[in-house]
Amino acid sequence: MARTTFEELLEAGVHFGHLKRKWHPAMAPYIFMEKNGIHIIDLHKTVAKIDESAEALKKIAKSGRKILFVATKKQAKDIVVDKVQAIGMPYITERWSGGMLTNFPTIRKAVKKMSSIDKMEQDGTFASLSKREVLQINRQREKLQKNLGSIVSLTRLPAALFVVDVVREHIAIKEATRLGIPVFAIVDTNADPNLVDFAIPGNDDAAKSVEVILSKVCEAIQEGLDERKNEKDKEAEAAKKEKEDVAPEATEEKPAKPARKTAARKTTKK
């Protein structure tokens, strides 16, 4: 059964592409027609691509790995925060810092810096600093929180990247491609779908369009997380039951071993 319907996508305006003069030729297979100088996306193919992407993302989530969402455009930020926070996945909605993936150890150090500042505040270190120093440290903490606070849970490279705008997030896509990280993306008619591994043809500018696609994707990821939790619960329950069912082995008294006979020494007469 399809995760979404043609009518649902149509109502959200997912079919509206860019002006014909801005199109990317590689998107031709996903374009249904042109109307008033605007390309119309074939929603039947969008439905199929959403299902394909959702199933792949569900498997990744079920395996316990993280999926990093990237959407720095204004109309998608709040939607990503709302949908992705609910499923506990990391996301970037502010500026993409160069080297976020290719120089991941450095990014992790910056994330840990936030924790060290919090610790300083709690253990009383701030009391020994001047007001100016405390102010500077707090400003640094706020900046780190704004740019990297949403990836605190990302302790290692993500298993996949989900991008809302291929053109806007081209640096993130390049980094992921370089590291062999699969990229899922909403691809409008002005972008090259060959740049990503899983392209979902659709309007990446309208908030309703982005929301309906992200909703289906996040639902699939949540299903994967739930299945993983259920399997772990069943394994734990089975292990507990097996432990309770194992009867203690009866300890039989072993017969005492006969005393070892000591051979009498032979005495030889001279």
Question: Which helices and strands occur, and which strands form pairs?
Answer:
Elements: H1 6-12, E1 16-19, E2 31-35, E3 38-41, H2 43-62, E4 67-70, H3 74-86, E5 91-92, H4 104-122, H5 131-148, E6 160-163, H6 170-178, E7 183-187, E8 198-201, H7 207-245
Parallel strand pairs: 4-5, 4-6, 6-7, 7-8
Antiparallel strand pairs: 1-3, 2-3
Plain-language structure description:
The chain is an alpha/beta fold and 270 residues long. The protein folds into 2 domains: 6-100 and 157-231, Glucose-6-phosphate isomerase like protein, domain 1 (Rossmann fold), CATH 3.40.50; 102-154, Helix Hairpins (Orthogonal Bundle), CATH 1.10.287. The protein has helices at 6-12, 43-62, 74-86, 104-122, 131-148, 170-178, 207-245; strands spanning 16-19, 31-35, 38-41, 67-70, 91-92, 160-163, 183-187, 198-201. It has a 5-stranded parallel β-sheet with strand order 5-4-6-7-8, sandwiched between helices. A 3-stranded antiparallel β-sheet has the order 1-3-2. Strand 6 (160-163), helix 6 and strand 7 form a beta-alpha-beta unit. Helix 4 crosses helix 5 (131-148). The longest helix has 39 residues, at 207-245. The protein is globular.
